[in-house]
Amino acid sequence: MGRNSWLDKLISVAIALVLWVYVLSLNPQSKTTVAGVPVQLLNQEVLVTSSLAIAGSDRYTVDVYVEGVRSDILSLQSDQVTATADLFGLGKGQNYLVISVSVPEKITVIEVRPNRIPVLIDELVNVRKPVVLFVTDTPNGSEIGGVTLTPSEVTVSGAKSIVDQVQSVRVSVSQSSLTETATAQLLSAEAVDAAGEPVEHVRLSHAYVELAAALYQTKTVPLEVPVEGEPAANAEISERIIPDSITIKGPQQALSGVEAIVARPLNIEGIDASVSLPIEPILPAGIEAANDSLDLTAQFTLITMAEVTFTYGPDDVWVYNVPGGYRVQVLTREVAVTARGEEAVIGVLQARDLQPAVNAANVSQNSQEAVLTTRYVQQHVAVSIAPVTARIRVSMANNQPEPQE
What CATH code would you report for 2-114? Predict the structure, then answer.
């Protein structure tokens, strides 16, 4: 009886083993990869309270390699695999977070790739940036006008290294969506850099900006720019470039009554160097400067002036073209020749360059005065002579010199 009992038990175990092997043969172990599992970042609010932010994307994914019996693997859904990383305790700079993965029971995680993710932490800043309007098309003869943007500034928040790249917040509109009557519409806002490229991984205080605008006609009319004052005593204007026309825009009815525009006077009193001055056109109500006339300027090119004076006695005056048989004597005791011009030119002049001269071609024995000039013509120099005429005495060549007066 005892022997049969043990025999029955052995037979039962053998049958169970056979059945177990059979079941395993029907549902063997299997492996699979769950790709692109999003990583949930925990304790992001802790970063904010510490005035810190992630410098870059906060979206990470990992690939999770798992194994289990075939039936469990086949029934596994991607949303049953979750990955997390904890931001608690992180400081400014480069950090590496370990990935924790959760899977259903009976499923085993073999490997996580990557098992750590790099996270750069930076100072959290909030900076107000201007809202700028970008027009996607420009029909001929018309421009957008009467523009009001609400709000005109938007707060950009995020890591300092990224917010510093933001130049402005841009909204875009097509002129084809506008009419001559002002209308309002909501436009999506995006942060852009100095090159107009979008800057990602920042937050805007306003996702939308309201634009009120109309489609205006354009017209080019004469522009008058008064200039007041004189440059400094040691300076002179060598060139001035002032625009003589301006393009304006506005409703057709308002434009029809505008034939010319006058600007506020430009004051150049006392300027001593080349300068570019902004032009401020005085525009009638309802009229605006067109885009290509928004930043009109007047250019004044100046040169530094200098002055030199040389004095000469009567024997220094060159007398030429004296008629045959005559002798011409200069009686004026002192002649002053002054030259004014560009500093570089005046600086190299010498007394002989400005020697006074008298052309005696037309003198007669009765002549008592002659016009004074300079012996050599000077380019780019203004010359003045004092006195403008010299007292002379004309006598026959065989006479003895007479005393000077």
Answer: 2.170.120.30
